[in-house]
Every structure is written in C-alpha cells, then in structure tokens.
Amino acid sequence: MRILVSGGAGFIGSHTCVELLNQGYDVTLFDDFSNSSEEVVSKIKEITGKDLKCFKCDMKDKKALEKVFKKDKYDALIHFAGYKAVGESVAKPLMYYENNLFGSVNLFELCKKYEVNKIIFSSSATVYGLSENMPLKEDAPLSVTNPYGRTKLIIEGILEDMAKAEKQFSIVVLRYFNPIGAHESGLIGEDPNGIPNNLMPRLLDVVRGKAGCLMVYGGDYPTPDGTGVRDYIHVTDLAEGHICALRYAFSGFTGIDAFNLGCGRGVSVLELINTFEKVNNVKINYKIVDRRPGDVAENYADVSKAKSILGFTAEKTVEDMCRDSYRFCMKKENMK
Ligand code: WQD
Questions:
Q1: 141: cis peptide before it, omega within 30°?
Q2: Measuring from atom 21 of ligand 1, which residue has the nearest CA?
Q3: Quick one: fold of 2-182+233-262+302-316?
Q4: Does the beta carbon of 145 sit less than 6 angstroms from any atom of ligand 1?
C-alpha cells in the first residue's frame, strides 16, 4: 500500500513516515522545505533502513502537484503540509490563508481526480478555542482565536462538505494537543526554521545556550502551580495515532470523523521544566513573566473516542518526551 504524505519532512510528518515504513507501507512524501530540511529524508532512510520517494513541491502550484499524483497510484493521503506558527499567522493572515487553504483545495481536488479516497488530516486542538470545560471532547464547541487555527477549522469544513458531496471518501480528522519529544534515535525531532514559538523548542534553546532564560508566560493561572497546563503527547505516539487512523479509514468506514490525539492529562509548564531537569540532570534558567495574550489556563483532551474507535492510546511518558527531546537537541549540537 502506498501512502502520499504532504509535509512529510516536517516534525510530525517525518516521524509518521518512519512509523509507516517500519510497518510495511510504501511512502511518497512531498514538502516545500519552507519549515523543514531535505536532510530529514536521509535521516528517515537511515532510521528505517528503507527507501522512500520524495518530491520538493509547493502545494499552491497545482501543475507541479499533479506531477506527483501521476508518479504512482496512492492508496491514501496523510496531509500535514501547512504553515503552523500562531504568532506569525496573526501578523501575516493572507500568507496563511493562501498557503494552507488554497494548497489544501489543490490537494483535495487531485485526490478526487486520482481516486485517492482515504484522507487523514492533521488538525489541531486549537480549533476548540477558549473552552473552559476540561477534558475536551470532540463535540466541544469549535471556535478560533487566530488565523492559523481558522485555517484548520476551515479545512475541516472543506473536508466535511467533500464527504457529503462525494460518498467514496473516508476522511479522518486528527486534532493534536501538544506534540513534543523526538525519535529515540535522536536523528529527527522538532527543528523549526526561524524563531520557535512553542515551549519545548524554546526550552531547548536555553539548554544549548541560544537563549539565556526561558520566559514562563504567567504564574497566576487558576492551576495547581499557577502556570499553564497542556496535554503533551510524544511525537512517536502521535505518529502511531496516524497509523491507527489509516487502518480505520481502510476498515470500511466512509464519511468523516474527528478524533483527539493526546494523553488525556494536563501537565503544567513548571512540571515540564522540573521533569526535564530531573531526567536530563540539567538546570533550566527560567523567569515567570506576564501571561501571553490568547493563552488559556488549561487545555487537555478526553481521549476515549480515539481509544474506543481507533484503538489508539498514547504510551510514552512526560519523562520519555523530555529525555528524547534532549537527546535530539544534543545530537544536533554535536553535529555542528
Ligand atoms: C504551551 C504552554 C504557554 C512558550 C500551540 C498552538 C497549537 C499547537 C501547539 C499546532 C503554554 C507556555 C510557551 C514559552 C511558556 N500547534 N509557554 N513559554 O500555545 O498550547 O499550542 O502549539 O497545532 O495549535 O496553539 O503551545 O508550546 O506555545 O505553549 O511559558 O516560551 O507553554 O503559555 O502554557 P500552545 P505552546
């Protein structure tokens, strides 16, 4: 079975390609490498000992994208490609709408034309907006607070309309909570181009001396230690969640359905820092500062639907996430 992976050189895409290859799928990835590096493809081959096909392609260029679809018959698409920095999306909304929306419509039109009828879409817990009721279920109200999140919500809507109009599609929407960690080999991990937005890459910048101090955004939230609480999930578990979704898409299911992918428990910023220090025997210099606009106090998943229908349960611990993130960071530093 051959799977087409958009954005396959990215953080979650590359880890999913590793798991796909390890489980006997053939993989073709394409990426514009705007927020990833071409060397990730060789790392995927090194980790798995398997070959895969790779094309440099911008999904906004429909002619170039169609050439990828003409190369092979694909049994499914896993769609990761898209810009994903919340802060950048607020500053450059049109760039996000053009890339994420126009690119996705090009992709889905070609799926219809070339009968790629199974689609797994990389969505995000950000579609739940500023919800108060934890843990979050998939039927929680959807609302968005930034252009990035709005592109995810609009693409979910596009897929819903496609599933209504075209009965041949099996579409699984996966709403990630907070993916962190790295492959246990240390060869691939979260390696954003430019200035990172998320907690773990910024914490790692402090570890490797790229930043002097980690700013902890808010110490006065109504949470156990006053800092923000999130549902962190190991990227390798997240990759496995995509394989479970693929199996479900091939199980006879048609239409569209959405699933939370998380661990189902909240971890605070200070808890994450303390765990990171303990498992890696390092000290993180941090300072508690004002809250970041747009942040919620806590955000974690009800994971029962993915467990009962996809047969997916995250297995790795916060300790694993911190240990694997650190290993990737140090390997990268030592290779400089
Ligand atoms: C986590 C916690 C911050 C940075 C975002 C997107 C979401 C998804 C995951 C793509 C919060 C705190 C952070 C820092 C800090 N991305 N923090 N200092 O905001 O939960 O979710 O990334 O799908 O769509 O919204 O993740 O890692 O930015 O923040 O104290 O330098 O860490 O306040 O409590 P977030 P995050």
A1: no
A2: 178
A3: Rossmann fold (3.40.50)
A4: no
Torsion angle in degrees (nearest 10) through CA of 38, 241, 233, 49: -40
Residues 7/82, Cβ–Cβ less than 8 Å: yes
**What does DSSP say about strands 26-31 and 214-217: parallel, antiparallel, or unpaired?**
unpaired
How remote is the CA of residue 201 from the centroid of ligand 1, in Å? 10
Structure tokens at 143: 């609302």
Radius of gyration of the chain (CA): 19
Give residue-wise pLDDT tens across range 310-321. Answer: 999 999 999 999
**With contact defined as beta carbons under 8 Å apart, do 229 and 243 qualify?**
no
Q: Can 148 be counted among the known catalytic residues? A: yes
What tens digit of pLDDT does each residue of 293-305 get?
A: 889 899 999 999 9
Measure the CA–CA gap between 68 and 53, rounded to whole angstroms.
10
- Residue 192 backbone dihedrals phi, psi, to 5 degrees: -70, 145
Ligand 1 in reach of 84 Cβ (< 6 A): yes
Task: Decide whether any atom of ligand 1 lies within 6 Å of the 178 Cβ.
Answer: yes
Please state the pTM of the whole predicted model.
Answer: 0.97
Cβ within 8 Å of residue 327, ≥6 positions away: 182, 184, 186
Q: What is the pLDDT of residues 167-210, one digit of tens each?
A: 999 999 999 999 999 999 999 999 877 777 899 999 999 999 99
Query: CA dihedral defined by 123, 115, 161, 7, rounded to 10 degrees?
Result: 20
Lowest mean pLDDT among 79-88, 150-159, 245-254, 277-286: 79-88
Q: How far is CA 232 from CA 192, 208, 316, 318, in A?
A: 18, 22, 10, 7
- pLDDT of 128-167, one tens digit each? 988 889 999 999 999 998 999 999 999 999 999 999 999 9
| 8 A C-beta contact, residue 98 and residue 154 | no
Q: Where are the domains of the chain?
A: 2-182+233-262+302-316, 199-229+265-301+323-334
For the chain, what is the mean pLDDT?
A: 96
**Domain 199-229+265-301+323-334 bears CATH identifier 3.90.25.10:** yes
Catalytic entry in 25, 74, 148, 232: 148
